[in-house]
Design goal:
Layout (H helix, E strand, L loop, with lengths): L6 E6 L3 E6 L3 E7 L2 E4 L5 E4 L1 H4 L9 E4 L2 E2 L2 E2 L2 H16 L7 E6 L5 H13 L4 E6 H8 L10 E6 L4 E7 L2 E8 L3 H16 L1 E2 L2 H11 L10 E8 L5 E7 H25 L2 H10 L1 E4 L8 H9 L3 E3 L6 H9 L3 H9 L1
Parallel strand pairs: 1-9, 9-10, 11-17, 17-18
Antiparallel strand pairs: 1-2, 2-3, 4-5, 4-6, 7-8, 11-12, 12-13, 14-15, 15-16
Length: about 325
Amino acid sequence: MFKYGQDIGIDLGTATVIAYAKGKGIVLREPSVVAVDNNTGEVLAVGKEARRMLGRTPGNIVATRPLRDGVISNYTVTEKMLKYFINRVCGKFIFAPRIMICIPSQVTEVEKKAVIDAASQAGARKVYLIEEPIAAAIGAGIDISKPCGNMVVDIGGGTTDIAVISLGGSVVSSSIKVAGDKFDEAIVRYIKKKYNIMIGERTAEDLKINIGCVFPKIQDMEMDIRGRDLATGLPKTITVHSSEMLEALIEPTMQVIDAVHGVLEKTPPELAADISDRGIYMTGGGCLIDGLDKLLQEKTGINVMIAQDAVSCVALGTGKALDNLDVLDRKRRN
């Protein structure tokens, strides 16, 4: 009797790992954080539990994010993290699972090999790779097999992937290392410069989610945060407004919009006409910043839509692509 989960789709994100098991849907959604004991090399916690330890560990314990800018920065820890997640999804399996993993559209062969090796070492029987924009398009419910242009902007934690897709493949694509993490860093820098207060990554992320915006709001929102006053070295509470978040976030946002512009400039005219008819689809957690769709629409003059369940689009698309694994296997054999 086979155990379920022989085919798994994994969105190996810089901020979050989402796993899709065939026939089950999304079965796991955890932060991609691992806490390791430096003395023994033992993994102490993975996911939510490890995220709570970020910035709060003693010297011998290090809570790290093994993926940076959409690629593996710490191979050993990534392998351990994948092993933990695969075991959680599959339980005790008779056969090692086949796994499909998402990668940014512009990764090098070395970075691809690192992902394949890490997943194989973690217990995968076979590893397949799929580009994030293509997975995002499938997950957003776009029929990518037709000969017409669809533009997808996938803003994750480490990378923003932009692609024009037609006939099941990317015609023009671009991947920039400006996404959710860079937004958080911009907020940390802004608070430090304006208030002379140091805040952590988690506080910056809370600000981004709760009052962050990149388009002027009708009603200014506010939020109290705590940080360390750099003049006195003591904790201090301040109130931050959404209008300040607009100032902090506009620079990285414009880099994303410039990248979209760059892809549109390289798009063949027929496909560009399709995109202006059909609009631009946005996916990924980063696209949920208030007003990003309005700003992109204003700057490009093209209708912009945020996909339903934008955060899970890539994982859902990977899950749907699992149904074609047998076709891929036949192609490989031929």
